[in-house]
Amino acid sequence: MEKIGFIGAGIMGKPMIRNLMKAGFDVNVYARDKSKINDLLVSGAVYHSSIKSCVEDCDKVITMVGFPRDVEEVYFEPENILDSVKAGTYLIDMTTTSPRISEKIYEEGSKKGVHVLDAPVTGGDQGAINGTLSIMVGGEKEDYEHCLPVFQAMGTTINYQGKAGSGQHCKMMNQIMIAGTLSGICEAISYAKAKGLDVHNALNSVSTGAAGSKQLDLLGEKILEKDYTPGFFIKHFVKDMKIALVESNISELNLEMLSMVLSHYEELESEGCGDLGTQALIKYYEEEQESQIEE
């Protein structure tokens, strides 16, 4: 069975690694702190204390890190992935990052004789746990087809989007849609509360109609229960929306809703809420209402 090197054993990465092992892949894992992946090691993953040792003998390498700067670090800094893998290795970056970084990795990888795909995901931590992620892939189509068994171990909706960077552009589309949907949910809940409705009952009433959505299904009750446990961090969503805004500006698009929602999340992040889940957007509306009452 193929050997996979995996870098980024976080909220999303850990269950993805587990599903790869369930599918029969041998998985090497790099982590700065070995104690944080002890549960994976018990399940059969192999620990490596350096990126080089983790990836040098692997058939495929998957990265699932936090921010664009982290992607650049693991692919381009000293003892990086590109300098450590053998020719013919498949490099799959599943981080949500700048399409321009994905294009750069593809260009540099091609020079070194390795195959590069950008394959960001959506579905949150539950999708990662259940192996039901949606995976959006950019790069060469034959490389995508070769890596399908790997993607199928982690997801159920897997689609080729086009040339390098296209997976990231599709993910930006996804994040723009989520921004508007979550904002709409929070505004609707604020309206229901202001009008004295039983909000639980109201949400149940609209959730199966035209206003229903995956975000409402996953986060509606959490919002009402003030459960801000992260399935996806605010700080990571802010990062994604900033990338989407930069890309929209490059294409001379005026995405007003995206700009507005980003400003709301940035305000929450500045208040120390960056490590909360995206459903904590409701706090912005609650704070707005409280300030109006005080005035």
Describe the overall structure.
The strands form two sheets. The protein has a six-stranded parallel sheet. It has a three-stranded mixed sheet with strand order 7-8-9. It has helices spanning 13-22, 38-42, 51-55, 68-76, 81-84, 99-111, 124-130, 141-146, 148-152, 166-194, 199-206, 214-224, 234-250, 256-273, 282-294; strands at residues 3-7, 26-30, 46-48, 60-63, 90-93, 115-118, 121-122, 133-138, 155-162. Strand 2 (26-30), helix 2 (38-42) and strand 3 form a beta-alpha-beta unit. By secondary structure, it is of the alpha/beta class. It is built from 15 helices and nine strands.
Question: How would you summarize the topology of this molecule?
Answer:
Layout: E1 3-7, H1 13-22, E2 26-30, H2 38-42, E3 46-48, H3 51-55, E4 60-63, H4 68-76, H5 81-84, E5 90-93, H6 99-111, E6 115-118, E7 121-122, H7 124-130, E8 133-138, H8 141-146, H9 148-152, E9 155-162, H10 166-194, H11 199-206, H12 214-224, H13 234-250, H14 256-273, H15 282-294
